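Priority: low. Protein: Cobalamin-independent methionine synthase II family protein. Input follows.
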Amino acid sequence: MRHSTDHILTSHAGSLPRTPELIAANEARSFTDDGFTLTSTPEFEGLLTEAVTDIVARQKAIGIDVPNDGEYGKAMSSAVDYGAWWTYSFQRTGGLELTEFNPISAEAVRSEPGHIRLTSFADRRDWTRFSEAYQDPTSGIALGKNATAFPTCTGPLSYTGQEAISRDISNLKHALAASELSEGFITSLSPGSASRIGNEYYATEEEFIWAWAEVLREEYRAITDAGLVVQIDDPSIAENWDQINPEPSVEDYLAFTRIRIEALNHALRGIPEEQVRFHLCWGSWHGPHTTDLELKHLVDAMLSINAGGYSFEAANARHEHEWRVWESAKLPEGKVLIPGVVSHATNVVEHPELVAERIERFTGLVGRENVIASTDCGLGGRIHPQIATAKLAALGDGARIASQRLWTRGR
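Result:
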């Protein structure tokens, strides 16, 4: 993972808007007999390869130093889709099948001190506090449509995505070479986030999470063995807080979260930290987020994850003030911060001067060489492609302004 040696490097959190052609092609794909695994054709694979080559070239042209494949290998069949970062994993895992259980609309679960459990997504405290807004299709916070249904674990988990991840790696490496770029990343789900589906096989939640760690480790290793950077997508570390009802104590929550971090670190064992980025967010839906847990309670847990870089939301209206956490939190030697300085949560395009100011807040605390400017979360499936392009351009312009100031001042 590169450091910002002569200018502020830029990247983003992963998902980028799909082309209309790719969305239509995913919509046209049929399912196998299990009802949730999408089939493919040589024509689709060719379209996907071309789309990845194009999106990497466009990232370079717009000023992104560390690009990815836009997550195009993760199926999105609707222009608004908040779940593609997660639902792709169903296509790559054995031991799953469709049942009547749906984690979105399942029966509510109540927690007790010392024994906290995740409730359904529909029973989130933010969603129930603002139930009228969430149920109003004109409110602007609809979650769109997922490409696949949510299955349940009914047998031993196994990784079956070897062909799919090999395709993703090949597409990105081909695109990087075509654009003469040296570094790229591929996103991959965390065990803690993956385990938020139904489980009818494993005896305990902890056993289920560790089974996911063994499954996903194969994907992490495939990406890093290919010389690429893996970004672990794990909103569950922060987002689970809102999915526990009633609100738990911070101590109980951190104990609940520690199991997920231990499982992730187990899955990352032996993988060089400099090839690992970790992405933390509070969920990318455009809701009020009044029940988000503050970063100050999570920062130590995040830094205990065996990664070389830490990506997190730092630009949206709920979390921008939390840059001050880094006045006391100590970034370990050799690691980098990848703060969001452009938000996915608004259609307003940030002014480059504001982006530069946000960047300089962090460089003043951890050093210019230890900051990579990024987006809060994925832009794909959340905002219009034209606006996403403008936001990435503002990110690049703001990084150039900050770089000119920082390197002119010599610090």
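Residues 162 and 190 are 17 Å apart (CA to CA). The chain has one domain: 9-409.
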